[in-house]
Amino acid sequence: MCGIVAIINKHKENIDRNLLEKMASTIHHRGPDADGVMIDGPIGFFHKRLSIIDIVSGKQPMTFDNCTIIFNGEIYNYIELRNGLKKKGHQFQTSSDTEVILHMYAEYGKDFVNLLNGMFAFIIYDKNRNEFFIARDHFGIKPLYWYQDENLMAFASEIKALLAHPDIKAIPDTDNLYEYLTFQFVTGEGTMFKNILKILPGHFMFIDLNTYEYQSVKYWEPNFKIDQFHTEEYFIAELRAILEETVSQQLRSDVPLGTYLSGGIDSSLVTIMASRLLNKPIKSFSGAFKEGPEFNELEYARIAAKAANAELYEIFPTEQEFIDLIPKLIYHLDEPVAGPGLFPQYIVSRLASKHVKVILGGQGGDEIFGGYIRYIVAYLEQALKGAIFESNEEAEHIVSLESILPNLSALQQYIPMLKSFWKDGAFENMDRRYYQLINRMGTTTEFFQPEFINECRYEAIFNKFSSYFNHPDTKSYFNKMTHFDMLGSLPGLLQVEDRVSMSVSIESRVPLLDRRIVDLISRMPAGMKFKGGEMKYLLKKAIKNIMPVEIMNRKDKMGFPVPLHIWSKNKAKGFIMDTLLSKKAKERNMINTEYVEKLISAEQPFSRGLWGLLSLELWYNQFIDQ
Predict the structure, then answer these.
(1) What confidence tens digit (pLDDT) does each residue in 569-611 have?
(2) Among 258, 348, 358, which residue's Cα sits nearest to residue 308?
(3) How far apart are CA 581 and CA 604, in angstroms?
(4) What is the residue-wise DSSP string for 215-273?
(5) What is the pLDDT of residues 264-273, one digit of tens each?
(6) Which residues are annotated as catalytic?
(7) What is the pTM of this model?
(8) 292, 331 in Cβ contact below 8 A?
(9) What distance in Å separates the CA atoms of residue 528 and residue 476, rounded to the nearest whole number?
(10) Which phi and psi (to 5°) does residue 607 adopt?
């Protein structure tokens, strides 16, 4: 796990090593173990290394056959790939996965990316062809950003490294700002910064260094071509086998490793499997808040730890730590994505960094297997619609009203969500209804000045959402929802995963996002994997023999809630008000400060909308004002 920076000077000026080093210094946390540099006239690479595999000889940049690479990530099947290359006559100087990538490129060309199983972002400077070849993993687990103008192309693992270049300015992108206010993340290649883009997940790019023309190619996305021939028992057996193999591969490390353990199904599964495959106790890390039982699920983490024979480390984040750390965390994020859970996630990661250098977690399980409560809400309405209108938009995939009834008790804690969802638009098209479920703008328009919010192009944001939601060749509501969540919202959650772990210099791995798992789940009939509206139905079937029954039967999974509504009435209130009602915040003419002040002062829960505002203002403080 590392940090990478690359520069192309289009007018052929030699690279300024000091500038390259200055850019890389902003992401020192990503790779504190070693530095590496390559300068070839107008082309420069800088690599910050976090040593995980082949600590001694795996240094970068690395060159083979006149091709030089800088690489961030891990290729989990590198041993299998290297063995195949040896049979073709390749000889290796190191035992690193980086060298395997170079030899794969030499043997197979650009299409070798389809053979990689891992998390990765890399740039290969092919001097023979005078081009750059750039690729990012299937889900965007590892980040890579880029910028270009008439003089320059620049690439980096984090946006802050690009902003260290004097020609790259921190300018808000207005359209993407409105999208952030809608979802609290930005979909697609855009970012919150004008002219700074993401290399898209599941894509590779090649740049002709003679003309600086470039082409981006999609090499992977979920395929919902349904397998109607195999049984539920077949899919369960296949899933169980792939889970064991992927966890086994992701335990490959030359440094100590552990797991995150929340007490939910996903992290418990990873911890139990990892401990069994290692055949020895594993270090696991969990956190909770002391503000009440609704913020503490350590009971379940302890049950999972006992089942795994894991050594559990616990920590309790505090209100003062929140006040002290949130500005720093927004800086690490580059963009104010996702929710306040990043704070306890950081605290737990910081604890883990004192004991291990690699950590495995359950990220992605909700998107892949259907673990969000909103899927039940959506299907409850869909089942009512089918019963009332005697319609069936999904053919064989639909969940019936009768079949969903046993699973509706999971909605007991979500009555406000149901009231808001059914307030208007009931029984509209599936894309409109799911958009309403995830759209945060509708409940927060009063937070903003009218002249600011009136500039929002609502329909353009919906159309962009719809291009993800309606893209897959499927009638299934479930597949459409999970397709958007995998390609639209999951990259934002992975951005948090990456930044939080890398900020304390540990490598975070996400076994449930193995491409083979997603390919298997995508081709299952939707009615099989979301049977009767039961969340994670098929995953539960696959792991029932290893999972404690108390965790399997949970209906109160918390998702690491932060007691902001309590803190916002205590010490944190002053911090929140000072941030949102500051002179600079008012001068932006964006926030309706009078309304926000009343909201904070009132005895009301601190909402996700207020969190979005707080994150946004802290982002302005960190990146735009400075």
Answers:
(1) 889 999 999 999 999 999 999 999 888 888 887 766 677 888 9
(2) 258
(3) 18
(4) EEEE----------SS-HHHHHHHHHHHHHHHHHHHT--SS-EEEE--SSHHHHHHHHH
(5) 999 999 999 9
(6) 2
(7) 0.95
(8) no
(9) 12
(10) -90, 165
